[in-house]
Design a protein that fits this description.
By secondary structure, this protein is of the alpha+beta class. It contains seven helices and six strands, in the order H-E-E-E-E-H-H-H-H-H-E-E-H. Bound molecules: zinc ion.
């Protein structure tokens, strides 16, 4: 480092090695027109010159990859859901069809039998997914539980296999019979 550089470094805030979100300041790039600029390396490997004020204020947090990554992952997730490609989305959509679309082959056992989908789930796949979580396997479907004849709503539904659902119905019905007798 020559004398001039030393003098400059004593006048500015030395950010060398400091990290600002994804950007790490490598070295001073320039001071021009009262603007201090730093040569930065982004976590993704891109080198970018960033103004010190933007770096310190958090206005610039990456080479540009951060915003685009967030946006694209968000779009990917909702596009997949919209396209109905996830098993959870298909389960949600089928559940509504069984209860509200008369043309559904099982409508008689659901919609016509008075089975409803709660408002929380009716209008939002996101909340359904937040409540139910990921389907554990392809053998699992929505089980109304413990009441196998109840409505579709949180706390009264779970993912279960056919075997578990049959066992649940048996237990529930047996309890109802016992209750009536006792
Ligand atoms: Zn980057």
């Amino acid at each position: 480092m020559d004398r001039c550089e030393n003098w400059i470094m004593s006048k500015i805030r030395d950010l060398t090695g400091q990290k600002f979100t994804r950007l790490t300041a490598i070295k001073l790039h320039s001071i021009q027109h009262r603007q201090t600029k730093w040569l930065c390396r982004c976590d993704c490997g891109t080198i970018k010159v960033v103004r010190q004020v933007h770096l310190v204020a958090g206005k610039t947090q990456s080479c540009g990859c951060l915003i685009s990554e967030i946006v694209s992952s968000r779009n990917r997730a909702s596009a997949t859901h919209r396209a109905g490609k996830t098993p959870e989305y298909r389960a949600w959509s089928n559940m509504k069809d069984r209860c509200y679309r008369e043309a559904h082959p099982q409508f008689n056992y659901y919609g016509k039998a008075g089975i409803k989908v709660c408002d929380r789930w009716m209008h939002s796949f996101e909340t359904f997914y937040a409540d139910m979580g990921k389907r554990p396997s392809s053998k699992h479907s929505i089980d109304r539980w413990p009441d196998p004849y109840g409505n579709y709503e949180p706390q009264k539904c779970r993912w279960a296999t056919w075997k578990e659902q049959r066992a649940n119905r048996r237990t529930w019905c047996q309890q109802q019979i016992d209750g009536r007798v006792g």
